[in-house]
Amino acid sequence: MPNVCSQLLSGGTCENPSCTYRHNVSTCDICSLVFGSPNDYTAHIATKQHVAKARGESGTLLFCSPCQKHVSGTKNWAQHVAAARHKAEAKLKGLPADADPEEVESVPGRTLCSTCNIHIHNNDWERHQSAAKHLARQRFVSFRTALDEAERDKNGLSIVGDFDFGIVDGPAAKSGKTIRPTIKNLTPSSKISIVSMTLASDKGSKTQSPFSVVHDPNRTIGYNATYSFAVTLRQNHNGRAEDRLEILFEDLQLRKRFIIARILRVIVGNRSDHETLRPVAPYKPRKRTARQPETDVVEGIHPPSLKAVPYVVALPKALIPANLASALSTGSTKSIVDKIRSLFLPSVLDSDTYARHFKTLVWSEEFRMERDLEHYDIPNAKLTVQNYYHLLDVPGLAEKRPSVLVGDRILVQKSGGANPGHWFEGGVHFVRKEEVGLRFHGSFRASPADRFNVRFKLNRHPLRRQHLALNTVYSEDRVLFPLPLHVPTTSYPTQARARLGVFNPLIATNAPQLQAVVSIVKRPPGSVPFVIFGPPGTGKTVTMVEAIRQLLAADPHARILACAPSNSAADLIATRLMSLNTDELFRFYAPSRNREQVPLDLREYTYEKQAADYTYEKQNAEKRHFSVPPLARMKRFRVVVLTCVSASVVSGIGMPRGHYTHIFFDEAGQATEAESMIAIKTMADTKTNIVLSGDPKQLGPIIRSAVARELGLETSYIERLMQREIYDEKKGYGASVVKLVKNFRSHAAILKFPNERFYGGELQPCGDSSIINAYLNSPLLPNKAFPIVFHAIAGKDEREAASPSFFNRDEASQVKEYITKLRADRRFRITDNDIGVITPYHAQCLKIRNVLRAVADEVKVGSVEEFQGQERRVIIISAVRSSREFVEYDLRHTLGFVANPRRFNVAVTRAQALLIVVGDPDVLALDPLWRAFLNYVYLHGGWTGGDISWDPARPVDEAGGYDGAVRAQAEEDMNAFTRRMEELTIAGAEAEAEEDGANVDRPWQDVE
């Protein structure tokens, strides 16, 4: 903060009487930070980072891990751990019921609100006490306290029996299972009458409880007498159920009534699966500790592949400016965004301010990426020596968590070393399934007994390439900010006048595809970018490839640079252009790319260079690296295919600007605008034409920083263009944009809902009937003519160890059951590769892969991002979220990643013949989009599993608010029960999840 005295900002005192800088600062003792204004301080104490540090307890407040709640005082702790509810929670989570409590230190100058479990600044105490969120939590705490009281035996009555049915397999649950608890009266000369036994679900619930209770009405129990009653479970589907049994008694002598309650629970499903998938350890949020800075790093030996490309243009360092890094490091997302907008971003985005705007966004993303890498730090790691290398095991490497490429840097430091700032850098020379090979400076030593702290450092080359492009002076408005004046007034060429002889005969019968090809081939040099708007399964890549082949045929001087955001998408382009010979087509791969990852058919279109250093490289199987041929030969290629980030290679080796007449981008919606500019701003001139193919209504680029997302980095170049006037799908048809409308992927029933919600109902189902109708009449379908299944299951979303990612054992087991049936059906034959499982949480991916290992090991299980651009005969979606804490948490916390329209669109449009969704309808229906989809499936007969709890024929309120209605109903139930108990005390409430784990389920972008 430049207007504040630097002495104060560094924690010292200013003794200079002539100092002109500000001294009226505010300090946060908890976070050891100084603020130059009260507003900054106020914004800071509202941030989750500050709250997380401030959160703690006084010396007498104890935290129970099984129940996830705080208990006040050791006396109450003893009562708490002896309570049936605590034992049930511990049993449910596989934890010891007698676990020691957790304690943390008190915070000076703050008052603990035991209701909200946060420390409040003394000055803010009165305001906090009247806040709506505090009052809502207070009501919840009252309910929990009343429930704890209700579950205690009282007035001499003892209720003996385990009301948790545990795990019951499907057939047993279907036929019915009964338990017989016993009530015993231990008070001499008393008589207790049973007035009623009721279930909480009987009070206004729209769904039928699987539990029922049978007892003798008005039964009187005398001293030392016992009475048994029956509770029966009967459920026809897998999943969890919970209900509250309330037994109303009357002491006939005192004429007083009282309630004793018990919680009924059951898990219906496969016991073996549930045991296999149980949490490996209780969930305890990872405590983030600030990294000590690296003050002394001994440079390692980098692999020769880094010199495989003969670059003549140096990359800029482009380090994050210190003042920007400072602004990004403190405050809530909103306060940081406001600060970045006011201090760093230009007020207007135009050609003159374009570079400054996007450089700031790229730096904001880099700041978060570096911070997210801290999640993968490894303490006490072992290094194994093999020839010239030190091998390091990296958990999660096979799943790119973290993503490590040849040429990356990894820092190591002896555990317990005297100098915490001293590190050795290891250059990554090879990457295997679970380990990497590092080379250090010759002074590095590691004995078998040594252990090391390991840090992963961000590979900044992709970011530096973006900065290099943004620094160029290229800033044509017709490319960056096209207006109607940039579009010729003459009519665009129509397919009828063009009379092209198509290479792909399917194009000839598809009017929008043919029009897109004609518009691209016939447009004059220097036109506005052309957009192929390709919704799911409409053949946008086929259209783009046809346009490239037509350009090459029409103009012998045409040169094409074809880019895609991923290697898989770039490989698809190159594969479809293999009719060209090896002197015309070149597929460039980054030198870090492993040869085994390259399709065999494409290897002849690549170029490799012998490793430069044989002193050690000959010991490694990788002796050659991908590179580029001499510049003269590069100029002769008519088509060069590469990733958006790797596109810097052509300018980097000295290829002249304007050499390529056309720059194509496939799957353009998945690249950031800055990544797209690597090719455009370094290679385009006044005549270069640009073509973008993609769908802005599907997922955009993977952005880790919430600040960068809020500032617009998640908006791709193609999406920003399509928000401009000239890209109106009807007004600009043929001149600047063509929307493809024939879907060749999915059955009409699968396509119908996303078509109407996202594409105005314009998509036409045109898939191969032998594929899209393959699962009609399958025994898996509730409606044999409707190839969508929604399997309603009430599970439980859980977390384990230090990972904040959610998983759901019930859904994982159900997914396995579906895949087992799919693979066993001899009438509807299918392979593992025909099935895809999509789930938004990484932990669920791991659990599902675990249970499928012995059933269908080759089935791909991944995130929505991993399936974009792909298709499978059968898609199964596991939604995971099944939180019932409606009162404590808001909709965003309850649904998480699931409540994202673009993720939904991608997930439900991957299936060709069969779509199965496994999820908790009561949670999913809180979101209007999901509720509408569930209504669609239910009304067409595709529903199975548990009952629906709302009227599916009632129109959906797109404004939402369903979470509020459910929360209000839950509060009413709580308040009614609390009133019945007539006893209110304050106890602890459950803590909110930390924000720091929000990125654990966001994949890392695969760039080279």
Automatic annotation (TrEMBL):
GO cellular component, one term: cytoplasmic ribonucleoprotein granule
Signal peptide: none
E.C. no: 3.6.4.13
Localization, UniProt: Cytoplasm, Cytoplasmic ribonucleoprotein granule
GO biological process, one term: regulatory ncRNA-mediated gene silencing
InterPro entries: DNA2/NAM7-like_C, DNA2/NAM7_AAA_11, Matrin/U1-like-C_Znf_C2H2, MOV-10-like_beta-barrel, MOV-10/SDE3_DEXXQ/H-box, P-loop_NTPase, SF1_C_Upf1
Family, similarity comment: Belongs to the DNA2/NAM7 helicase family. SDE3 subfamily.
Protein known as: RNA helicase
